[in-house]
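Supplementary Methods. Inverse-folding protocol.

Structures were first reduced to a discrete structure-token string of length 254. This string, shown here, constituted the complete conditioning input.
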């Protein structure tokens, strides 16, 4: 019942990475939003089209974009935001969709994009408006290092993730001065690019991860970044939402 949630409703875009590979991140997102007072709605939709765009399959990407705009155009507005977890997927609504949809759908695509947010962007906006506060979270000290997602750096702001992770009063968060993790979408998954992918990771990211203490929490918004960190350093990186969800106090969860 949406009426029991004091902070209103949001619509969650369950991107293809969350839906098939990182389901635990999606579950944590819904539980966190519920605990913070938000009703979370989901409807059937197409994938984001990110994979098709990255491979130059623009005709297929256009079909996907047209489908999603048709699905969301009457649902998403300034009182019903569209929230996404994977930066490269959700930011497609803001960046590519208005440019590749049919001309008759451009205005609708722009309207949806205006009301589309990364989960970190949305939570920081709501936190700054006083919709919830740090008393809902643990005060236990934790050290966190954050690797910024390239797509997020280009089209949004990694500082939203940094400050979101700083909401719990005991959290100390360091934004690492790292470039690309080396995965670059599907690039690093392809056999012929593996060596180059690992070399890119070794430039800054892998050494910084190895230099961190074992009890330091590693945060990375991108699914490809998290897998690259695991492959290159044997360390587990978490989506920032998983970290914030784990930080909810017992009283909040109950």
């Amino acid at each position: 019942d949406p009426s029991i949630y004091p902070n209103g409703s949001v619509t969650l875009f369950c991107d293809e990475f969350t839906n098939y590979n990182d389901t635990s991140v999606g579950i944590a997102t819904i539980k966190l939003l519920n605990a913070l007072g938000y009703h979370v709605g989901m409807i059937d939709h197409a994938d984001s089209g990110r994979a098709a765009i990255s491979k130059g399959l623009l005709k297929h990407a256009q079909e996907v974009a047209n489908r999603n705009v048709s699905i969301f155009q009457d649902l998403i507005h300034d009182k019903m935001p569209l929230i996404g977890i994977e930066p490269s997927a959700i930011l497609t609504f803001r960046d590519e969709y208005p440019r590749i949809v049919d001309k008759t759908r451009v205005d609708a695509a722009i309207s949806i994009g205006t009301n589309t947010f990364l989960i970190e962007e949305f939570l920081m906006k709501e936190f700054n408006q006083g919709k919830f506060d740090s008393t809902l979270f643990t005060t236990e000290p934790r050290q966190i290092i954050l690797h910024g997602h390239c797509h997020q750096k280009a089209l949004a702001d990694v500082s939203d993730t940094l400050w979101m992770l700083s909401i719990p009063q005991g959290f100390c968060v360091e934004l690492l001065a790292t470039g690309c993790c080396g995965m670059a979408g599907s690039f690093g998954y392809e056999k012929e690019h593996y060596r180059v992918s690992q070399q890119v990771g070794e430039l800054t990211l892998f050494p910084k991860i190895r230099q961190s203490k074992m009890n330091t929490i590693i945060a990375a918004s991108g699914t490809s970044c998290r897998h690259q960190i695991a492959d290159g350093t044997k360390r587990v990186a978490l989506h920032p939402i998983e970290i914030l969800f784990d930080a909810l106090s017992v009283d909040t969860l109950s």
